[in-house]
């Protein structure tokens, strides 16, 4: 299986979030017990894409080829490191930009998660 590369460049900011899988139990005395469930954190990146209608069609085809969030692909993060990621959601929210009746562009919010 050949792994594709996500080629679209985000516009503006890219928000990175890291979350560890910990279980927290709080007792009546207000003390907490924290248990590590997994050693590897879940890392996500959230950013905006914008472009022409042709770019939107290519993005939708890429999403379809990866069955939403089922298949992994490569993406270069803001630090220049190539990551193996997948879409964090099984949906692709896209806003069409129209001029008169024809779509001329799009905006989309993308959330990618690192494959562990």
Could you please describe the fold and organization of this structure?
The protein has one helix and eight strands. It has 116 residues and is mainly beta. The chain has one domain (10-114). The strands form two sheets. Strands 1, 4, 5, 6, 7 and 8 form a six-stranded antiparallel sheet that branches. Strands 2-3 form a two-stranded antiparallel sheet. A hairpin with a 2-residue loop joins strand 7 (94-99) and strand 8. The longest helix has 13 residues, at 53-65. The radius of gyration is 18 Å and the shape is elongated. The model has no long low-confidence stretch (mean pLDDT 94). This is Phage-related protein.
Q: What's this model, at a glance?
A:
This is Phage-related protein. By secondary structure, this protein is mostly beta strands.
How is the biggest beta sheet arranged? 6 strands, antiparallel
Low-confidence segments, given as residue ranges, are: none
- The geometry reads as elongated
Work out the helix count. Answer: 1
Q: What does the radius of gyration come to?
A: 18 Å
Report the span from N to C terminus. 18 Å
- Kindly state the mean pLDDT as a whole number? 94
The residue fraction in helices comes out at 10-25%
Secondary-structure content class = mainly beta
For the record, the count of structural domains works out to: 1
SSE arrangement, N to C: EEEEHEEEE
Strand content: over 45%
User: How would you classify the quaternary structure?
Assistant: single chain
Give the total of beta strands: 8
């Amino acid at each position: 299986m050949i792994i594709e590369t996500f080629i679209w460049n985000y516009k503006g900011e890219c928000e990175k979030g890291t979350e560890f899988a910990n279980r927290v139990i709080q007792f009546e005395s207000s003390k907490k017990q924290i248990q590590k469930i997994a050693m590897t954190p879940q890392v996500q990146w959230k950013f905006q894409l914008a472009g022409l209608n042709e770019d939107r069609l290519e993005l939708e085809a890429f999403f379809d080829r990866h069955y939403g969030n089922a298949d992994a692909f490569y993406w270069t993060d803001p630090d220049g490191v190539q990551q193996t990621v997948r879409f964090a959601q099984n949906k692709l929210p896209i806003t069409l930009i129209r001029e008169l009746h024809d779509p001329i562009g799009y905006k989309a919010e993308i959330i990618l998660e690192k494959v562990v």
